[in-house]
Write a structure and sequence with these properties.
Elements lengths: L1 H10 L7 H8 L14 H21 L2 H10 L9 H12 L2 E5 L5 H9 L2 E5 L16 H8 L6 H22 L4 H24 L2 E4 L2 E4 L2 H4 L2 H9 L4 E4 L2 H5 L11 E5 L2 H16 L15 H9 L2
Helix pairs in contact: 3-11, 6-8, 8-9, 8-13
């Protein structure tokens, strides 16, 4: 019985249990294809249950552009999406495409993909008996949480602009007088980029005619946190201020106690413009220390880009 269970796991594409992903990582292949035939019945069941239980939450708490995006992508609620089908509906709308990856994408490479209208997409899915347990991003978070927002032209343009910010940060680091100062500057700028991304693209709120709604994928893919973010009295919600956001640490191990509100996607694009100007002026080389930690892979990815 144990052997058959292990064999099923190896055939499936379950998060942290997929032999296909392990082989790709071992071979150093980051950008991969989606071997759709490997999804197990349990994988499709996980998608089906995740998608079904989010419907009332989305109608209640998601922003209108997200709901329109869900309709535009024509998801099959009963099975894991094929990325080629997602891209068939997505690309004509904004030029964005989901791009399959085998795991963690270093920061510069991730942002560079955005600048090219490519979204690095995890192809594994969490276990059907652990729908609330997410040790790392999965295809539900990426495709159901992120990609519907990529159907909106203004949001898509903001993502591209954000991706370009990474190139500015790499150029600014390259001008440092010595390796130690280069590393210090780079660490600060990557923190600023990561914090901005976290409090907007991942956990952002926006003002709508119907009140405050979620547009961040971390909220839109989480059954529990989506409602908590919009209704819990303990959550602090403030209009987004650049100085605050780039200096504000965060912890992804629990529900977020602090969230920021934008006025719309024109506002988001203007904020990304401001972020790039601050990078180019050297104003983000000295942000507050603290989370998130910047790992060697993230720092190295920017150094390679110089």
């Amino acid at each position: 019985m144990a052997d058959s269970t292990a064999a099923a796991a190896a055939r499936g594409l379950t998060t942290t249990e997929a032999a296909f992903i392990e082989a790709a990582q071992h071979a150093g292949r980051l950008y991969i294809h989606q071997p759709y035939e490997l999804y197990s019945e349990q994988n499709h069941e996980a998608w089906q249950r995740l998608f079904a239980r989010m419907q009332p939450q989305w109608r209640r708490y998601a922003n209108p552009q997200f709901l329109k995006g869900i309709d535009s992508l024509c998801f099959d609620a009963s099975q894991v999406p094929r990325l080629e089908d997602v891209n068939r509906f997505l690309a004509p709308l904004t030029g964005f495409r989901a791009k399959a990856v085998s795991g963690y994408v270093p920061a510069f490479d991730f942002f560079d993909c955005l600048s090219k209208r490519e979204f690095p997409t995890t192809i594994t899915i969490r276990r059907a008996d652990r729908l609330d347990y997410l040790p790392e991003p999965d295809i539900f978070h990426d495709i159901a949480g992120h990609v519907p927002m990529h159907t909106d032209p203004k949001f898509a343009d903001a993502l591209v602009r954000f991706g370009n910010c990474a190139h500015t940060a790499a150029r600014m680091a390259a001008d440092a007088p010595d390796p130690e100062e280069k590393q210090r500057r780079l660490t600060s700028m990557i923190k600023a980029l990561a914090r901005f991304f976290w409090f907007t693209v991942e956990f952002g709120l926006m003002q709508t005619p119907d009140g405050v709604r979620a547009y961040g994928s971390g909220l839109l893919s989480s059954y529990g946190e989506l409602e908590h973010a919009l209704t819990a009295p303990a959550v602090q919600r403030y209009p987004l201020q650049m100085e605050w956001v780039v200096n504000q640490g965060f912890d992804y191990h629990h529900y977020q106690p602090l969230l920021f509100i934008i006025d719309g996607f024109d506002h988001l694009f203007a904020l990304v413009d401001e972020l790039e100007r601050r990078l180019a002026a050297g104003a983000l080389m000295y942000v507050a220390p603290g989370a998130p930690d910047i790992n060697d892979a993230d720092a190295s990815s920017f150094l390679r880009a110089e």
